[in-house]
């Protein structure tokens, strides 16, 4: 067995330790390997098969320095970092080790501190550089240089280091933000110096050491100027937009300043520039301004943006752009979609007011659009009671649960939003609306699909699927391209959904009691189709209508099997191997049930089941024993049963209409029930063929007896009960066999067997004794 040699082997000069062979003691005694070890030491020689493993707190790394040969050292993580630096500097003959620091050589070149030194792994490459406090002092001094080239060079070195927290603290503590702010406010150089200053300022502020609210108003206004003016350097506007976004999200007061100083038209101009970074930052500031606005201001801003065709531009030039969309842009489009749908929340939270004249008129418009106001058109002389009765009946036909529809719409959510959806459907798809209502009015009451009740529940469902009224996530990117391809997307989606509800209702042949089940299926149809992210409403309509009720059932079954792992080829192979054993177990259970026996009823010539008889299988499975018995009597013993039928004489098992005792023609319900429970055994009685006829007391007993008799005859057990029992046993046995593989993915194909090695010289022959 291999052992570690990261510690002393503990073998004294005298031998291998306890129970080991003794060794001659002397100034230079031999160790276990025959080597001479000093008397004052313990043997450190490796044994055959032992491996070298360094201690856990020691890592092997390389350290670089410009114009020097790299050092390969073993870094002891328990040793203070100052002591490590001292050893590294001594190896290169450098004095004043406190002036140096270690950095990661790749990535962001972060400084190594006591807090992050655990990130150093075996094989890491570090570099020796100037300490962060001295580096910060030197670079900030360069920012005050009279030479533009000197400031540019200092900023070029400052920007990559600004993302490091250790360096950022040193810069901020030396008023580095104020110095950068001065360069930005002065605006003497609108080119690379300004871009580098903005980038360094953003990196330093992102650490959260200084609050965004501490920024001065003149500074923010100067950055706004960089957004509003046309600059030659294309790298400045995205940085200025990013800075204003952070200001808007972090400080409400300064956010109002940005909102008043940056016109929406200017942001639209930036969005139309075919520059991915500029578009992303402009969209980021736009969504930040919308999030900081009040609901009324947000509605005005979004209405103005839609009037300026922002939705069409996003759909054509961002969503369908040839360049791939970044994660940041996807997040901002998600926020814009969520804020736009959030405008529906007030209607969703407002119940219908039965005393509001406008809302009452909207209900009447909905009713009149469905029915040709028979009373009002054919005769205006209807009494008030007659008119109210007619309206109540028509509202019932519309699918309202109450004669007064206001009571149905008092529920929030969806409140008035459901009424808005129904009115939109009736006005924009009048033929589909009339067909829906009239088609269901002609059905039986229990089979009609209630339009109003379905519309109310569908509105709730859409609000849940589209997260209407929920706060925006800070990381989500789940926007729907279809939303930007269609005006009034929520109402249009409702129009598709309500027709889908009627279609699914007919496919399920549902009744009023099945309403909740139908809505669950419709929810699944809509959710599955939305997850596909169709790019247009027509594509959504096509896909959701193709997802029929039968297809939903098939998908559910497939997903359940995949979840249980029963469709993986290795699992299917395991199930096939288990089947014979489990079928034997089912056969044994069926025969035991026949041995217990069952009480059957005889049928007279008048189809009256008025006599009882008992039948069972003998324990040795060689005889069927049966005989008459009285109702209410205890089960008879085998010895008391007068009749016997040897299993060897049985020829065939007959079921249903093939049985001789139910062959008489008849179409009554009683005959149909007898067909389903009847079975017979044909057997040899001398030279004649005779029958032993049964009528099972239940469908389960029918399955058990026909399976048992088939087993006795050597025929396959093919009943529905056998299929269910086998599936249940296979599922249980498979789960038990795979219990230790829980949460372990099973590959579709077995891993390939590697080819054999070219030789087998690596084998160790344990039979050879050590010298």
From TrEMBL:
One of this protein's GO BP terms?
cell motility
Where does the ELMO domain lie? 358-530
Q: Using the UniProt annotation, give all residue ranges assigned to the region (Disordered).
A: 1-28
Organism domain of life = Eukaryota
**The keyword Transmembrane helix is annotated on this UniProt entry:** no
Keywords associated with the record: Apoptosis, Phagocytosis, SH3-binding
Q: What molecular function does GO assign, one term?
A: SH3 domain binding
Quick one: signal sequence residues?
Answer: none
* Described purpose of this protein according to its UniProt entry: Involved in cytoskeletal rearrangements required for phagocytosis of apoptotic cells and cell motility. Acts in association with DOCK1 and CRK. Was initially proposed to be required in complex with DOCK1 to activate Rac Rho small GTPases. May enhance the guanine nucleotide exchange factor (GEF) activity of DOCK1.
Q: What's this protein's name?
A: Engulfment and cell motility 3
Tell me the lineage of the source organism: Eukaryota, Metazoa, Chordata, Craniata, Vertebrata
Gene of this entry? ELMO3
């Amino acid at each position: 067995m291999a052992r570690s040699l990261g510690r002393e082997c503990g073998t004294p000069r005298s031998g291998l330790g306890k129970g080991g062979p003794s060794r001659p003691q002397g100034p230079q005694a031999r160790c276990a390997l025959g080597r001479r070890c000093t008397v004052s030491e313990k043997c450190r020689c490796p044994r055959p098969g032992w491996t070298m493993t360094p201690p856990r707190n020691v890592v092997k790394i390389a350290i670089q320095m410009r114009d020097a040969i790299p050092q390969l050292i073993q870094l002891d993580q328990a040793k203070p970092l100052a002591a490590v630096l001292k050893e590294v500097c001594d190896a290169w003959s450098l004095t004043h080790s406190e002036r140096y620091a270690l950095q990661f050589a790749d990535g962001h070149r972060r400084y190594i501190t006591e807090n992050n030194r655990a990130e150093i792994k075996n094989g890491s490459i570090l570099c020796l550089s100037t300490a962060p406090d001295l580096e910060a002092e030197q670079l900030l001094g360069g920012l005050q240089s009279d030479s533009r080239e000197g400031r540019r060079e200092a900023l070029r070195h400052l920007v990559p280091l600004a993302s490091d927290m250790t360096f950022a603290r040193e810069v901020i503590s030396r008023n580095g933000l104020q110095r950068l702010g001065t360069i930005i406010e002065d605006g003497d150089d609108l080119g690379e110096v300004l871009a580098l200053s903005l980038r360094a300022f953003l990196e330093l502020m992102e650490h959260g050491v200084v609050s965004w609210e501490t920024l001065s108003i003149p500074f923010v206004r100067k950055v706004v100027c960089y957004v509003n003016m046309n600059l030659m350097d294309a790298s400045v506007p995205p940085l200025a937009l990013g800075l204003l976004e952070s200001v808007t999200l972090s400080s409400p007061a300064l956010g109002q300043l940005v909102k008043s100083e940056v016109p929406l038209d200017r942001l639209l101009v930036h969005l139309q520039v075919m520059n991915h970074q500029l578009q992303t930052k402009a969209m980021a500031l736009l969504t930040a301004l919308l999030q900081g606005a009040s609901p009324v201001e947000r509605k005005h801003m979004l209405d103005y943006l839609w009037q300026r065709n922002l939705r069409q531009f996003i759909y054509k030039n961002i969503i369908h752009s040839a360049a791939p969309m970044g994660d940041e842009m996807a997040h901002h489009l998600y926020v814009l979609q969520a804020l736009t749908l959030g405008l529906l929340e007030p209607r969703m939270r407002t119940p219908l007011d039965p005393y509001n004249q406008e809302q009452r008129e909207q209900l009447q418009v909905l009713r009149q659009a469905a029915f040709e106001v028979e009373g009002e058109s054919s005769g205006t002389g209807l009494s008030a009671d007659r008119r109210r009765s007619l309206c109540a009946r028509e509202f019932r036909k519309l699918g309202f649960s109450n004669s007064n529809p206001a009571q149905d719409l008092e529920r929030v959510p969806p409140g008035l939003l459901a009424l808005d959806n129904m009115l939109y459907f009736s006005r924009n798809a009048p033929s589909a609306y009339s067909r829906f209502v009239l088609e269901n009015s002609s059905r039986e009451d229990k089979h009609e699909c209630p339009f109003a009740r379905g519309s109310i529940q569908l509105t709730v469902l859409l609000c849940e699927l589209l997260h209407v009224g929920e706060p925006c996530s800070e990381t989500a990117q789940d926007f729907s391209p279809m939303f930007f391809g269609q005006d009034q997307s929520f109402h249009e989606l409702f129009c598709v959904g309500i027709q889908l509800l009627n279609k699914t209702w007919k496919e399920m042949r549902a009744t009023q009691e099945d309403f909740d089940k139908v809505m669950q299926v419709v929810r699944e149809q809509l959710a599955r189709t939305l997850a596909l992210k169709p790019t247009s409403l027509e594509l959504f309509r096509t896909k959701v209508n193709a997802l029929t009720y039968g297809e939903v059932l098939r998908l559910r079954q497939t997903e359940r099997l995949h979840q249980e792992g029963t469709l993986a080829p290795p699992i299917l192979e395991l199930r096939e191997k288990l089947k014979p054993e489990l079928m034997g177990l089912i056969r044994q259970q069926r025969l035991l049930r026949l041995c217990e026996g069952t009480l059957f009823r005889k049928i007279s010539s008048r189809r009256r089941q008025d006599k009882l008889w008992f039948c069972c299988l003998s324990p040795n499975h060689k005889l069927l024993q049966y005989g008459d018995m009285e109702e209410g009597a205890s089960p008879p013993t085998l010895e008391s049963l007068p009749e016997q039928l040897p299993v060897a004489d049985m020829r065939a098992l007959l079921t249903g209409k093939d049985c001789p005792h139910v062959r008489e023609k008849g179409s009554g319900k009683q005959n149909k029930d007898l067909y389903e429970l009847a079975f017979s055994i044909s057997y040899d009685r001398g030279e004649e063929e005779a029958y032993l006829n049964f009528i099972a007391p239940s469908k389960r007993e029918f399955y058990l007896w026909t399976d048992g008799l088939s087993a006795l005859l050597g025929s396959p057990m093919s009943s529905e009960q056998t299929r269910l029992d086998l599936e249940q046993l296979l599922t249980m046995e498979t789960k038990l066999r795979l219990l230790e593989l829980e949460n372990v993915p099973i590959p579709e194909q077995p891993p390939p067997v590697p080819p054999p090695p070219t030789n087998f010289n690596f084998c160790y022959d344990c039979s050879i004794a050590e010298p």
